[in-house]
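Hey all, quick one. A colleague (J.T.) asked me to put the 4'-deoxy-4'-aminopyridoxal-5'-phosphate job into the tracker so the inputs and the structure tokens live in one place instead of scattered across chat threads. No bug as far as I know, just bookkeeping. Sequence used:
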Amino acid sequence: MVTEPTWYARGLPHVWLPYTQMKTANPPLAAERTHGTRIVLADGQELVDGIASWWTAVHGYNHPHIVQAIQAQAAKLPHVMLGGLVHEQVLTLAARLCAIAPGGMERVFFSDSGSVAVEVAMKMATQYWLNQNIRGRTKFLAFRGGYHGDTIGTMAVCDPEEGMHNLFTGLLPEHVIVDLPRDEASIAAFEAALERHAHHLAGILVEPFIQGAGGMLFHSEDVLKRLRAAADRYDLLLIFDEIFTGFGRTGPMFACEAAEVAPDIMTVGKALTGGAIPLAATIATQKVFDAFWSDDPAHALMHGPTFMGNALACAAANASLDLFEQENRLMQAVDIAKFMGPELGGCIGRKGVRDVRVRGAVGVVELDEIANLNDFKRRLVAEGVWVRPFRNIVYLTPALTIDENDLQTLTRAVAKVVSGA
Ligand code: PMP
């Protein structure tokens, strides 16, 4: 780094960074400001952002409509507890989310991160059975390649490797993890697992269409249809984790719409506020909510994060939904796919490239391996882009608002660095 700001040198020895072996990793870059699809570093370098900050900033950074909504709300009512109080932003957002959610979803439970939204979904599904006096349904059927969060409850339903089940043996509860049912052998194994375990399952949990953090793995609508049919057959709750795929990332507002399959419970987060502030939600059908509607206080959903329904976050989310209504975001995701397809497709056949796949505003180049991840990342930055490859996966999930020039900068940079890999 050419010019290191004082705050950088002073604070870096005291911060603990995510998923990072801080001793050996490249030092983090000092971000000074953001605008649109750009991140400006403290040394003046401007990077085109290919990741939208872990898939959150769908409208680009600092969108004036979202910034204005947060500022106005901060001056009026930044936060009140949701225990006993409600405010305009949270109720407006709840109603709007139910209106756009697939199927007949009727109730929204807010939280502050995706992991917690999934924890709430798991608790909701478990208590759904308990409230009906059906005991022992405390396990979930989840899938290899899946990722649902970093908390202890959610790690246990991630891919065993991704969730580090072995490392944390003894800490994590055991669930039933199988391959997604997509061919004869995996369908047979899925059916056998259901037959064997259904009586103690609360539900089936999946990321529809794209398993994100587990490796940007795509599956087809048939898989989702099969899960819905299985959930109905065995009377299980079907939970879609749309934290990555929601809000236009794969084309439609929610990925599951493309399969015309609706869940009983759905989790959203990440792009819910357009990336400005943390907020997540667990959305349930009337059928699920009905199991909690009772004269017995013990049947209430036993959860309540301190900052649940934070007014600043809900104002940002309402502003983000305005933008989806006013600007043609979903079409932009389709256009991004049309552009990225042939651009990244150029990597096919190059040495070390195993697969290239694009769905909506998700473009993936899967390599045999990335031998030196630090060096690979450095070369991407040298090309003027911010892209975060992991394991053997290089992917682009830009803001849906990205223009063709910036998108081309991203795809060309990826193609160039991949070729030298
Ligand atoms: N579910 C999915 C599908 C995710 O992609 C993520 C985050 N990558 C989470 C849950 C957890 O969200 P958070 O990081 O906000 O806790």
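Adding what we noticed when we looked at it: The first strand starts at residue 31 and ends at 35. The mean pLDDT is 97.
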